[in-house]
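Worked problem 6 (solution included).
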Amino acid sequence: MKVNEIFTSIDGEVNNWGQGIMSTFIRLQGCNLKCSYCDTKYAQSTDQPYQSMSVKSIIEKIDSIGCKKITITGGEPFLQIEELQLLCRLLLIYNFNISIETNGSINIPAWAKTSDNISLVIDYKLEFADKMEINNFNMLCDRYWIKFIIGSDNDFYRALSIIDSFKRQGFFISGKPKIAFSPIFGKVEPKELVELIKINKKWDITLNLQLHKFIWEPQKRGV
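Solution. The predicted structure is:
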C-alpha cells in the first residue's frame, strides 16, 4: 500500500468511538481531490514521498503498538480499495475498531458498511459538490458521520440545504447518521459557528473541532 505515515495520537475529530480517544493513524498517500483548505497536502499526490508497505507489514507495525483503535485516513483511502479491504478484514480478525475518513467522492463498497467495528466519517465537500457520490450519504446508520467543512456563513446555509434535501429524498429513513460541522481552522471562529447553530436551532448538529490543532502547532505532524 502507498502509506504516508503511521503514528499514534488522539483522534482529534469526530468518530464513532469518541473524539479525543487514542488511535493509531494509517495515513494513505494519494487523493483525487485538491481541496483549497487541505491540511495534509503532503499526502495528496503519489508524486510526493511515501512508503510502499505490504498489508502484512502494516498489521505487524500497528500490532506492535498495541492501540486497538485505528483511524485510516489520507489522502483518500478508497483509492486503494482492494488493499484497504484486505487490511480492514485482517484488522477485524484481530479485534481492532476502525474509522475510515473519506472525501465522499468515491463509491463506498458494501463491505465497509456491514461491520459494527467499522465506522465511516464521510465528508461532503461543498467546493466539489458536483463530484460527491450521492449514494454514499444514503442508508447510513448511527455509527456513521457526515461531516461538512464550513468556511463561511454561506457554507453553513448550503450545508443545511443539502441536509434538508437528503431528508426529503428519504436518505435517513432507515437510519440516522450523525452530522458534524467543522470550521476551517484559522478562517472561521468556532464560536461563530456555534452561534449559527443556536440561531437556527439545529440541535442535532455536532461542532467538530480539530483538537490536535489546539494542543500542538497546527502544521505539526505525527503527534
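Discussion: The CA atoms of residues 122 and 146 lie 5 Å apart.
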